[in-house]
Specification:
Elements (H helix, E strand, L loop, with lengths): L12 E2 L5 H11 L3 E6 L2 E7 L9 H4 L4 H4 L1 E2 L10 H10 L4 E6 L2 E7 H23 L37 E6 L5 H15 L6 E10 L9 E9 L5 E7 L2 H25 L7
Parallel strand pairs: 1-2, 7-8
Antiparallel strand pairs: 2-3, 3-4, 5-6, 8-9, 9-10
Helix pairs in contact: 4-5, 5-6, 6-7
């Protein structure tokens, strides 16, 4: 999800030379907690209810200007910045709001409350998706060993037997790079691996998945998922997909690697066996 999908586009702004008491009055009148400070059409700061001292901050605000209390050179985002990137930016601060800029033009604002609300909805949606995957609506059911989730760990004493190993025993490695993966994210990836590649498990020696945040706070198409499948007696398959969100990159890479693995396995099955001289 990108910020353009839920940011507030009616941004209340104030000038740096205005009185701090005027900023407080504007917040109370609009029932908001953050103002973007602009000068000459450019964003030069943000000021929050906390910066102004809250309801008991009359003495702090008395005789002072917005410039005196604002946070200058604020961290900003773009409309294409993803929800997860915005959450990470705010957590580093901590930051209560992010002005959203298109170039140098102010086009919106998101607050920590907005981001938390969307993350909550996203988690609920992901949990619902996982419940659907395990509810028996998918056919064949996930209990099938050909479509079971790929495992988290394999016992050290286990030795994979080529041509006989089912999906639950395929060594699988998920490696995040520059990004945090929640347990639900890992569960989702392993379950989708089972659904997409489990039917080829007897031809697979191991699988590795690397997910990466490419562009940092610049937004745009900034996630990549790279899947490597080591096949028995065949060249390894590597497929990478980029997307504006982690889920888009993962789903695209899974769909792509399934196609390539299917072609490789099918080609081997159709190749006539060589007769011994």
């Amino acid at each position: 999800m990108q910020l353009r999908e839920f940011m507030k586009t009616r941004v209340v702004a104030i000038g740096p030379e205005e009185a701090a008491s005027a900023a407080w009055s504007r917040m109370r009148a609009r029932r908001i907690r953050h103002l973007v400070v602009t000068e000459g059409g450019r964003v030069v700061g943000v000021i929050s209810e906390h910066d102004l001292g809250g309801p008991g901050g009359g003495k702090l605000r008395s005789g002072r200007r917005v410039r005196d209390l604002m946070t200058p050179r604020p961290v900003s985002a773009t409309p294409a910045t993803t929800l997860r990137r915005a959450a990470r930016l705010m957590r580093r601060g901590p930051i209560g709001s992010l002005p959203v800029l298109d170039g140098e033009r102010l086009v919106g604002i998101v607050t920590a409350t907005d981001v938390l609300d969307q993350l909550g909805r996203s988690s609920t949606s992901r949990a619902s998706r996982l419940r659907r995957l395990t509810s028996g609506r998918q056919k064949p059911m996930p209990d099938s060993r050909k479509r079971a989730p790929f495992p988290d760990r394999i016992p050290r004493a286990f030795r994979r037997e080529s041509g006989r190993t089912d999906a639950p025993l395929i060594p699988t490695y998920i490696r995040p790079r520059g990004i945090e993966l929640a347990p639900d994210d890992r569960t989702y990836i392993r379950r989708k691996l089972g659904m997409k590649l489990g039917k080829f498990a007897t031809s697979i020696e191991r699988v590795s998945v690397r997910v990466e945040d490419l562009n940092g706070p610049r937004g745009g198409i900034d996630h990549a998922c790279r899947i490597k499948v080591v096949l028995s007696g065949l060249p390894s398959v590597i497929y990478e997909k980029r997307g504006a969100s982690l889920e888009a990159a993962v789903d695209g890479a899974l769909a792509g690697v399934e196609r390539v693995v299917r072609k490789s396995v099918r080609r081997r099955r159709m190749t006539p066996a060589r007769r011994k001289a």
